[in-house]
Amino acid sequence: MKTNIINLFGLGLIGALTLTACSDEFLEEKKNYDNVSTDIYNNYTGAERRVFDIYSWCLPTVDSDPTWQYPSTGSDDDQSKSTEEYSGFGAFVDPQSPLNIISGTDVPDYFFGTPNNIQANAWGRIRNVNDVIEGIEGGSLSDSEKDELLGQVYFFRAWCYYNLVRYYGGVPIITEVQEPVESTYTPRSSAKECIEFICSDLDKAAKMLAASTMNGGWSSSKWGYVTTGTALALKGRVLLLWASPLFNRANDQSRWTNAYNTMKAELDSINACGYGLFSTSNNINGSDFALQFNQSGINPEAVFVVLYNTVQSGDGQKNSNWERYIRPKNTTGTGKGASAMLVDMFPMADGKKPGTTDTYTLLESSSYDYDSNYPFMNRDPRFYRTFGFPGVRWAYSGNSTLTDADLNNPSYDYGTNYELWNYVWYTDQDDQDNVESSNCYGADNLLSNSKGIFVRKRSDDYDVNSSPLYNYSAAANTSGFIYSAQPYIELRYAEVLLNLAEVACGAGDMSEAVSLLQQIRARAGYTAENNYGLQANLASDQAACMSAILYERQIELAYEGKRFEDLRRWMLFDGGTQLVDNAPSTWKLTGWGGNTCNYLGFKQLNGQRRENMEFRVADKYGLGSTTYDSDPLLANGGERCAAVDLRQDLTEQLETLKEWYADNLVRKEKKGDSYDSNQTKLYMNFLPRYYFMGIGRSAQSNNTKMPQTIGWEDYNNGGADGTFDPLAE
Question: Would you report the helix, strand and coil content of the chain in percent, each value rounded to 5?
Fold first, then answer.
């Protein structure tokens, strides 16, 4: 590729200084190690610091929206807002703002980054990786030392390329440090070549790291480093991508079989690195599901993990903002609202889908009746760890500075007995049933930040983790949860099993797929008594089995940034029925009956809307005002029942809350996705060309030889149709 955009200046080791929670002195000196003499590679400590530099460049982060470098991590970003998880049109489903290259709404840039900035450029990052590989290979370290370091670097080169290939199909493969001169150019390779290259790097990484990590993983002082298991788990994700309809339009069975045989054989190696489903002996109402995200030390679930700390300033600061993102405003957080679509389609307590949903029609409906007025009744244990609703306990460890942030915030014993009461009232009768009205105010000083149903997933719940990973200190107008050391897990062991289950099903071994689903469900709290909530025909009906796997992925991995990729892989926005303009016939989906949605019994997302929900006070309480103390329910004789305590049996508690809702609250639909200027409802519209992204204007202008993807405008060719075929082999 054209590398004269790379300005060879140094990158300080920001972030890498505190890669591991166990070693805040990860580097003793805050030096620049990306522009150094090759002599550094003759010394293990020096070479290791160059590897730390790669970590600092390439690790994902929970505190960023998706970019060329960072994947979606579950926040309400453009990708997650193009799924069932959040409402409000993300960039990929907005019917009024189609993505373009030359004019209109710019296509997101996952290919390039910032010109003339090696730190903020995708290809500068890959150049730095190649520099470290060349340096270590040419140095005088022992073979075992080289393997330990190179294995980690080869993993990150594969990680870099995976994040490019999943969007663009084929990209330039660069394996050497190129000089930044005008004549340097590397063409786009085919997607197949890229997949093979990624898998080759991951095989190298796995082999090189085996001696150091396949006897239970790294020691505690090196927890967080990638391992043989990390490499093989990412390889499984890559093989699954290659077998999925996005890349496998004719449903070539050899891809499924190869992926299955490879991933099944390599699971033992992943396990040998100490990975497995996180569980304890005291799993209550899905508490293990919640606790897995809040382990400060070695965690078997965390196959690919990013560690954070509570350092408050300086180069060593590496804090996670997730707790602040999702906690309600009256705890000094900001809060995120879940869409009613996902809330209403979450499984019931018997593991089956609600009978009211028209998605996943191949799956059996629950024996429990679902009443949307009481969405918390009889749900999958993971429901209570994924969502927060009016009348549920959600404890945290605060302190007296809570009132410094806002004197009207409720204390609830400084958070240790916090209850979420985010019902609302209106100030005008005409607004009470108006889905568009925002003239409502939430209880307990939430006011305009009531959110309806909160996202609770991955919260550091004090009732689950009595040694929280955050330092709480809420000065005026600041967030108490800002200094959090909660790790971010990019690839969980549960996903390893789900990936294997999917390729097992695709290869025709549905019995193995069901067995893997049962393991996931057992950790969630289901038992063999009812086959872990799974219907009986999954081992004999391939389409139903695949549908069950994708449903399980949607629930188990909700708000972890994985759903958008699953929807793309399976082309579930339109079933793959629409052909990109000027695309060759090989792009036509011929497998799965030519429509993945029909095959799976899945209702395509195109043409649907995501709405929100809220719970307003019953009419008998009348209206309120705009202040925290004008709650008409409390002002007019109403009382709150006991909040649901997830540490206790839920049966009677939920019945009590249901009765209280029936007497005191009304579920109200709230506008989620937008309307047009005539107040007409708009609907999701993911264009077929979005399945493979176009290269943005900035990247093309910096490389005039780079061909554009079919279906997108070629900036370097006067807006003509692109010519690069991601599916060509």
Answer: 35, 10, 55
